[in-house]
Amino acid sequence: MHSTLVRAQNVFGLFTTVAFFVALLTALSVLLAPQHPTAALAVRNVQVYDPSSALPPKTADWRRASRARGRPHYGSTKKVEYAQIRFDMSADLSSLFTHNTKQLFVYVLAHYPSDRPGTPESSAVIWDQIIPAAAESNPNLADGATARKETRGIVRLRDQKAKYQIADPSGKLAERKNVTLSLGWNVQPWVGALLWDRTGRLGRWEALEGGRSEAFALPPLKTKKTGGETARGQAAR
Fold it and tell me: Where are the beta strands (DSSP E) in the chain?
């Protein structure tokens, strides 16, 4: 009854019980920390490309451009139109960082209506970034300030090119109306559940203030000019 093995089991059982309750209290304690995130999004430039557009000259970016321009969408060999978006964003997400925050996953979504009446709108991620809680510097601060407690979670983007282009399963995307951009995030804690952005208030956690751009329309198809002639003109020859 008092063997070394029994004593080790008792100590281990006590340790795991204490560790469980400490982790539970740590996870629940974040509910006491107020959250008041704010953000502003604005579109700078939008271009919709035609799959038949001519490729740029064979420069260093030619291979990458050839893969992107007029690429087939997943699950089909059909070539599709795609949009490239540039935007400005100013966000203060510092209140999302607590003692239990490991990192913050931030992303920008593009919402655009379907070409079929009665079908829900589509959403696609066009930009994302991971902001570690222990980061030595904040790459989104224009002045390069260190990621101290008061600057951690501050995001400033100007004329930011989207990481990901958007397309539609129908293959057609030009001249869509009522397109918007919105900010979302996912708080990844050390212990506890993942926490996503909310549309309403929850206790001391306020909903995101702003974080959605004004509605805009996608422009007509854009064609590349090569030697003073458009790609369509060259194709006609």
Answer: 38-49, 82-92, 101-112, 122-132, 154-161, 166-167, 180-189, 195-196, 209-210, 221-222, 225-226, 229-230
For the stretch 144-176, pLDDT in tens is: 433 445 578 889 999 999 999 888 888 888 889
| Whole-angstrom Cα Rg for the chain | 24
17, 82, 85, 222, 235 from 47: Cα distances, Å? 57, 8, 7, 7, 21
Give the separation between CA 194 and CA 188, rounded to whole angstroms. Answer: 5
DSSP state of 103: E
What pLDDT was estimated at residue 74? Answer: 54
Query: Worst-scoring range by mean pLDDT, 6-10, 11-15, 75-79, 206-210?
Result: 75-79
Structure tokens at 192: 């506890």
Say what the pTM is: 0.75
| Coil/strand/helix, residue 33 | coil
DSSP class of residue 17 equals H
Q: Which helix or strand (DSSP H or E) is residue 16 part of?
A: helix 4-29
